[in-house]
Amino acid sequence: MQRPPEALKPFADRMARTAAADDAAQLVHLLRISGLMGGDANSLDVQSLSEEEASDHVHYPRTGSWHEGDIGIWERRTEGGKSAFVRRLDTLDEWKLWSNLGRIEPKGKKRRVLFMGESVARGYLYDPDFNPAMALQMILDLQFGEDQIEVIDLARTNLCYEIRELAIAAREFEPDIAVIFAGNNWCTSAPTFADVVRIDKALANEGMAGVKRISEEYLTKTGTRVARDIASAYKEQGIPLVWIIPEFNLGDWRDPITNAPYLPGDQNVEWLNLYEQAQAALSNGDPKTAERLALRMVELDHGTVVTGFYILAECRQLAHDLEGARKYLELARDATSWDSSMVYVPKPHSITQEILRRESQDGGYQVVDLPALFKQYLKGEIPDRRLFVDYCHLTTEGMQIAMGATASCILRALKNVEVPWYALVNDQIVPSARTEAEASFLAAIHDAHRWQSYDMVRHFCRRAVSLSPHIVDLMLSYIELQTRDEAPMHMSEAEEKILRVGSPLIHHYLFSNNDRRLDRILLGAIAEVLEEAGVPAQEQLDRVRREEHGLKDQETDLISYYFISAAQQPQEFEVIAWPSSRFGYDARYYRAFWPYSRFIFVGEAGCAVDLTLTCRLPKPAPREGQITIDCNGQPQVEINVSTAWTAWNISLPGEVVRDGLNEILVHWPMPEFCSTEALSKVTLQLCHRKFPDFYPVFGEIHSFKAGIGQPAATTVPVVQTESSLIEVA
Amino acid sequence: MIEKEVHNGNVHRPAAKLSRRAKKGRLNVLGISSGYHDSACSLLQDGVLVAAVQEERFSRVKNDRSFPSRAFNYCLQEGGITIADVDCIGYYEDPCLKLGRQIWMGFLPNLPSHRRESILGRLSTPHPRQMIRDTFGFDGRVEIFDHHLSHAASSYYFSGFDESAILTVDGVGDWATTTYGFGRGPDIERFEQVDFPDSLGFFYSAITGYLGFEVNEGEYKVMGLAPYGEPEYADQIRKLVEVTSEGQYRLNLKYFGFLTEDCMYTDELVTLLGRPPREPESELEQFHMDVARSAQVVLEEILLEKTRYLHSKFPSQNLCMAGGVALNVVANGRCLREGPFARLFVQPAAGDAGGAVGAAALAHVKVTGESPVVKKLDHVYLGPENSTTQAYKMLRASSARFHDFRGREDELIRYTVDRLVEGKVIGWSQGRMEFGPRALGGRSILADPRRPEMRDRINALVKMREAFRPFAPAVLESEYQDHFSLDHSSPFMLETCDVISPIDLPAITHIDGSARIQTVNEEANPRFAALLQEFYRRTDCPIILNTSFNLRGEPIVCTPLDALRTFLRSQIDVLVVEDLAFERSGIPNFWEAMESFNEKSPVDGSRIVEHSVYTLL
User: Fold this and answer.
1) Which of A93, A490, A526, B204 is the most exposed, having the fewest neighbouring CB atoms within 10 Å of its CB?
2) Whether the bond into B197 is cis, omega within 30 of 0
3) Strand partners, A178
4) CA A415/CA A625 separation, integer angstroms
5) What is the pLDDT of residue B602?
6) B259 vs A311: CB contact, 8 Å cut-off?
7) Chain B residues within 8 A of A314 when measuring between CB atoms
8) pLDDT, position B519
9) CA of A648 vs chain B CAs: smallest distance (Å)
């Protein structure tokens, strides 16, 4: 090994000092990714950027651990001159995402239907007990006769654009027809450096509207390419193809309300004022004014957030204009396609739906247009919880309709007969009541953990209890599981009890995905429906919460994952929940993205509580501003704060503290929205693979704790229960 | 559907009392080390070290090198302060100096492209000041100190000496790999250093890699293996390092590959020693033991010579040592026995984690002009404290059967001693966790040292590690001189000495008759001392085998839950967490299976430390 010359040491030090100067590291990074310094594997290839603009080349991230030449997790096994496919052992981690199909036999005499798609095709929350492929098989058996046709279920949860690779490869299964149920997971991906270059330009010229445009262009380009390639591959081999265009739960699903991202000039202030006024107008029974104000909000934010659209949809619903409401709900669904910082749920964007319709013309495939089909089925009503368990996954009823229409297409292609879809919808094709109940309970959990309304969560809880009595014990155990959270799930006695139920569904979904949270909405809904069923659950919930999370034994960290999850403020939650991992946020402290912040603690009526709060205003900001703090809706203190961290003791009198859950609200002053400066950082943040600060910050909290305070007040307060905390939609 | 917060402002309600929170401590200084390995954070309050912890204990990623955000938050919590109370943050190395060294490495001809890329990557790495600002939101004073100064401070300011010679030796930080200096009052001065690429740390790491152990982690295994061998290869190994004048030495770089390759050594070393390198996990032969012994001898010779040189320049009675090489307790012992210094203090967290303590101390000096502490560090129980309440809640929520000794400490001690005497292996998690690599009765595995089978049993079934690895004894401070050839206490398990006990202690006596002892007193760890007292009363043996509570490749346990998980995945017989104890028979059957299943959680790659070559970049 050679020793570098000693003489170069001072020179190396000089270079290092230069590189350590302000912005020098930034410059080096930009030079690297632009390829001007030789570049690395991730640097921008300018030539390819030019070519890419002129071509329909697309890139998308791939999930899964499939091997070249395999079909999904199955590899070829040649036996007696014929090819069967068996699951690869090294894809074991992925098996749970697919149908439990160990071996796919060589094609025999039966006609073969390939059924591919995403979790909606998998039958999310029902599978493996029941799923669309099973429903389709049963419908087709009735039409073709027993053992005349087989549905091979290749649907995979979390499949995205890789449906292209899967579908093209799956032709090896020699299908007579293929069905694809995909499009919900088509979304924007983390930008490449070439994308960052475009975003940089778009931000400068168009602001946030430009970011949304680029995202939609990506979606259009990628979706078109995927649909086109699949269609042509099947057309080439003369294999008929049916594409089920997914629909969204427009009626019930609500993405979190957020502030607008940075807008030019004073428009953020105007937007927030419009929001306040529109809310007031709705409260005062004046939807016309609310609509006018919301239209201006959308004009300002260019449709980049859901907030204005939801107000408009509500106004249209109040005016009994279902089509108007549908339009705005669709726009709300599409609003945040550009923004993966928000809690992402799969959804079929209008762009995706349009691509799939359009490409069916040239591609020669049939479509099951679920938006149109569901509209017809519901006689013009907006699709909702009747057909969906969450945002896009179908209920049994939804599956029956979708598979009836799919079977109609298959009959047309294979038998050349026309059977209307409604003639094929078979309400006898259902899972057991037990499965339906468990799926409903799982839906309640799933929806609650994605910030849905109390009403929707309670609906699925109530449905679960009404369908099968065994759900009661499951729910009681779940209260314990979520509330006694010191032990990991698998060490908790509650999980043992749940396991003893012996449900594949619960095992599959609950234990692999459950998230330990305070679950203010969910456990509240569970307790309510159990009480309705004559089971005294509220007392159990209150007691266990008090035992585990009361202030007697220990302080409560109000910005810990467990407690912040109950605040129903997902943007703030994300920063706490996923520091530096999923999105790459730097800050390891709480940031408020809304004019107020909500916190929850478990109190005892009449017992004083001491809060310690360390907070500041974000920079740039006025030197000082005033925050106000409420407890359970009652103003408590006003504090002058600045951009420097300051710690405060706040002693809440026992009179304002309730039994059970208590709510603290911190109202922040209006910040200075320095949009140009803020957005100028976005490009650099993207270059560093950090999630950009698209949204203004109102305040920052480094620590916020609640502990037991002075002895109880002498006067006995009116005991209010926590249920009054729950906002009922 | 859309929430609206109604401000109920016009209803008269009792208002809360508001006061600005009084700052705890006049001066709160935090120290941070990160980026290489063993990221850590520490807190000095008015000059008193009140908290220090490695990030790995929270993230559960061994040697975690990521920015220590959880350790930072712990230090605030332990100090009873918030970010608003932090006066200054000291960072343990100068990124500019380190970058200079890294750029210099880039001047090598024929440097592999990935190495060059890494250097370019370093050029665009955010400055620690920015990391501190972005991560913690801290806009206050940040002081940056060079790597070896932080090491020196981590030892000197906590030694209790008011003047001392200081020797720091490690792999590399910025440029320096070995420094010679002294401390006098609040001041530390350096008068000489050896620069990269000449490094005693790299010398030892190259042998570590050659012997099939993890570089930057397995060096202590080489030290443990050495007594099994003879210095048959010392002459060959001396060729690796040319000892030159004063404090200097030079590596013979033809034997080292670290500048250009992902391997510490070259084929020349293989030729020199005449045998191919050992495959990791393969059988250890006498040859490997002889090589380990030879490397240990050569290291000791050099260190001894350099301590003599240091004494010649600064003829003090006292020597302070730090840096990763200072964790070689066998060499330290020889330097003290045969060298010119009368007293030696080694920072218990002598590696990079200790840099966090050193940086905090230096920042304190910079702010106040005064030394941070006036007395010798007497314990390292500086990490998170177990909460009996939390542990109780955890177990209460489960169907596990456990013994509840809350409020009955005497019974807990008797119960534990009963199990030790029965030959059980105890997982012992008590009080605050230790800072640094050694478990000292806070997060320990304990056993009866008199049992001949105990070493093999714990190595194989409990810690799942190499059979030759020795275990250390914890001994009552009042009794150690009857059992060990040592004339002073050794609270940090940083010295070896001969075992002279009349009791046969096969489980803690190394093959050469030595042991790496920890002396225990009531002041530093009352419950551990009580356990030793009771064991002594029952057995006439004031000694218990003490090893760190972790499995191979994992950090030492931190929380009661970590302890429980490690208990489940090992063959420890009894777990004692604070006042609660349980035995394997009390565990629900499926826990162990579930725990093995949950073990495979993905680890954030940015936290992992590379073990094939030292982390140069």
Assistant:
1) A93
2) yes
3) A114, A241
4) 73
5) 45
6) no
7) 1-2
8) 97
9) 5
For B49, phi then psi, to 5°, come to -75, 110
Contact B548, B439 (CB under 8 A): yes
CA angle, A478 then A480 then A486, to 5°: 120
In terms of C-beta density within 10 A (0-12 exposed, 13-18 middle, 19 or more buried), how is residue B185 classed? exposed
Nearest chain B Cα to A633, which residue? B8
What are the backbone angles phi and psi of residue A254, rounded to the nearest 5°?
-130, 115
CA dist A422 and B511 (Å) reads: 84
Percent of chain B that is helix, strand, coil (3-state, to 5): 35, 20, 45
The four Cα atoms B325, B329, B334, B337 give a dihedral, to 10 degrees, of 130
Q: What percentage of chain B exceeds 70 in pLDDT?
A: 94
Contacts of A665 in chain B (CB under 8 A): 5
Q: Report the residue of chain A nearest B266, measured CA to CA.
A: A1
Number of residues that make up chain A? 729
| Residue B306 burial (10 A CB sphere; 0-12, 13-18, 19+) | buried
pLDDT score at B7: 42
pLDDT value for A712: 46
Cβ A429 vs Cβ A138: under 8 Å: yes
The CA angle A290-A696-A304, to the nearest 5 degrees, is 50
* C-beta neighbour count of A588 within 10 angstroms: 19
Q: What is the mean pLDDT of each run of 10 residues along chain A (729 residues)?
A: 80 85 74 66 52 58 71 90 90 92 94 97 96 98 95 95 94 97 89 81 89 92 95 96 98 95 94 98 97 98 97 98 98 90 82 97 96 98 98 98 98 97 95 97 96 97 97 96 89 90 89 88 98 96 94 92 93 75 66 96 96 93 86 95 95 95 96 86 78 90 93 43 40
Contacts of B95 in chain A (CB under 8 A): 20
Question: In what helix (H) or strand (E) does residue B59 lie, and over which residues does it extend?
Answer: helix B56-59
Does the beta-carbon distance from A490 to B594 stay under 8 Å?
Answer: yes
The per-residue DSSP string of B26-49 comes to S-EEEEEE-SSSS-EEEEEETTEE
Residue whose C-alpha is closest to residue B132's, from B382, B370, B433, B356: B356
User: ipTM of the predicted structure?
Assistant: 0.89
Give the Cα-Cα-Cα angle A721, A725, A728 (nearest 5 degrees).
120
CB B345 within 8 A of CB B319: yes
Is A725's Cβ below 8 Å from some Cβ in B? no
Cα distance between residue A362 and residue A367, in whole Å = 12
Helix boundaries (H) for A570-657: 570-577
Q: What's the residue count for chain B?
A: 617
Report the C-alpha gap between B589 and B575 in whole angstroms: 16
Q: pLDDT tens for residues B91-138?
A: 999 999 999 998 888 888 778 888 888 887 787 788 899 889 989 999
Summarised one tens digit per residue, pLDDT across range A23-40 is 777 777 777 777 766 655
Helix (H, G, I), strand (E, B) or coil at B521: coil
SS3 call for A424: helix
* Residues of B with Cβ-Cβ distance to A653 under 8 angstroms: 14-16
Distances in Å between the Cα of A522 and the Cα atoms of A9, A81, A394, A441, A549 are 63, 56, 21, 10, 17
Q: Which residues contact A318 (CB under 8 A, 6 or more apart)?
A: A287
Mean pLDDT over residues B550-572, rounded?
Answer: 92
**What is the structure's pLDDT at B323?**
94
Higher pLDDT, A29 or B18: B18
Which residues, in sequence order, are bridge partners of residue A75? A86
Q: What is the DSSP string of A467-516?
A: H-THHHHHHHHHHHHHH--SS-GGG-HHHHHHHHT--HHIIIIIHHH---
